[in-house]
Design a protein that fits this description.
Blueprint lengths: L4 E3 L5 E3 L3 E2 L6 H13 L4 E3 L7 H11 L7 E6 L6 H15 L6 E4 L7 H13 L6 E4 L3 H8 L8 E5 L7 H9 L3 E5 L11 H10 L3 H11 L3 E2 L6 H8 L8 H7 L17
Parallel strand pairs: 3-4, 4-5, 5-6, 6-7, 7-8, 8-9, 9-10
Antiparallel strand pairs: 1-2
Helix pairs in contact: 1-2, 3-4
């Protein structure tokens, strides 16, 4: 399986579908999950210092035998490590745990007010030194990005945020497109909380797909890089089996109305 990619604003190619590995209580299972995903054609792995499994990511890549250059690795600086000097140190620790000289994408995990600008300045330095092929942000909404862009020398290549029909805010996608920032969505499956939503179930049955596959396909059709998380082999396989159908414009529009602000993570609108 060859997964389509998107071109970031600096020319770097990023797969459209990958594996999220936010699994703090499942560290022992993460390496196996990544190995399975790589076997199935996945080439995007999204981790973070806060997940505590960067070493497992490194072990899985090594065990896979797939050339490093074929795999897109994202990690993130955690809130407690933000600030210029601390971010640089945190990045070095992530590189060491990942066993890498270069990551493909380095993100600010959350917009921490007192450190936003200094943290971004550190990411710009990392990028200028060629130690990250792209830099970006996570959980940043337009107000945070307006503030960042006012002082940034480099526009973020990616903005990763929670994205499902139930947390769908079209203005964020519009903002990212206007600024040429690639949107990336995490928690597309809402951790299964909406698996029995009658509206979703009816549409999934129409397409002969699972509710999870429908949610992933909806995200992809919005042009959003999508990173469902699972440590189960069958679920990982299912999550990547989404290329043989297309949701109609009418059904996409219907799913766009499912918003009820159901979230897995904090709402960035509450972070000033």
């Amino acid at each position: 399986m060859t997964i389509p990619s998107t071109t970031l604003n600096n020319g770097v190619e990023m797969p459209l579908l990958g594996l999220g590995v936010f699994a703090p209580s499942q560290a022992n299972e993460v390496q196996q999950a990544i190995e399975w995903a790589l076997e199935m054609g996945c080439r995007l792995i999204d981790t973070a210092a806060a997940y505590g499994n960067e070493r497992e990511v490194a072990n899985a890549i090594r065990a896979s035998g797939i050339p490093r250059s074929d795999i897109f690795i994202t990690t993130k600086v955690w809130n407690d490590d933000q600030g210029y000097t601390r971010t640089l140190r945190a990045f070095n620790r992530s590189l060491e745990r990942l066993g890498l000289d270069v990551v493909d994408l380095y993100l600010i995990h959350w917009p921490i007010k007192e450190h936003r600008h200094e943290t971004w300045r550190a990411l710009e330095k990392i990028y200028s030194e060629g130690r990250a092929r792209a830099i970006g942000v996570s959980n940043h909404y337009p107000a945070h990005l307006d503030e960042l862009l006012a002082e940034a020398h480099i526009t973020p290549a990616v903005n990763q945020f929670e994205f499902s029909p139930y947390s769908y805010l079209p203005e964020i996608l519009d903002y990212c497109r206007e600024k040429n920032i690639q949107p990336e969505g995490y928690a597309p499956l809402v951790r299964g909380e909406k698996n029995n939503d009658p509206k979703l179930v009816a549409l999934a049955e129409k397409y002969g797909k699972s509710t999870y596959q429908l949610l992933i396909r909806w995200s992809l059709q919005h042009g959003v890089v999508t990173i469902p998380k699972s440590v189960k082999r069958e679920r990982i396989q299912e999550n990547f089996d989404v290329w043989d159908f297309t949701i109609s414009d009418e059904d996409m529009a219907q799913m766009n109305t499912f918003y009820d602000n159901t979230r897995i993570a904090d709402d960035p609108r509450e972070i000033s």
